[in-house]
Specification:
Length: 121
């Protein structure tokens, strides 16, 4: 496959490249070689994702808290680090990897980022 850095590819091409159907915005360690983040910096995007420091720093909002509790506004509450059974959520897995990296316990996580450029796609 041709290098897709800075290229526009379809959703199907993206899924083929990653070897899975990408429905979640955060996908920790797909195939054990890298993680995948789907982001959007479009105007009126539902998340406040952004690039800083000339594109070297990605600020990614992460997953919202599940909408199962109608008393909680998903936009004002972070997804918990773990599920009620103790399993790490996607947010928790990324956070643990970042903490381990800062403490010298592991190398930096390789992350492939795809940006949504059109509404509804």
């Amino acid at each position: 496959m041709a290098d897709v850095n800075d290229s526009i590819i379809s959703y199907v091409e993206m899924c083929q490249r990653e070897g899975t159907s990408l429905q979640r915005g955060m996908n920790f360690q797909l195939g054990r070689t890298h993680s995948v983040i789907l982001m959007s910096t479009r105007k009126n995007a539902p998340y406040a994702d952004r690039l800083e420091e000339d594109g070297r720093v990605l600020v990614y909002e992460g997953h919202d808290v599940p909408r199962s509790d109608p008393s909680v506004d998903p936009k004002t509450a972070d997804q918990p680090r773990s599920t009620p059974t103790g399993k790490l959520t996607q947010n928790g897995r990324f956070e643990a990897a970042a903490k381990d990296y800062r403490q010298g316990k592991r190398p930096a996580e390789r992350v492939r980022v795809y940006e949504k450029i059109y509404t509804g796609i």
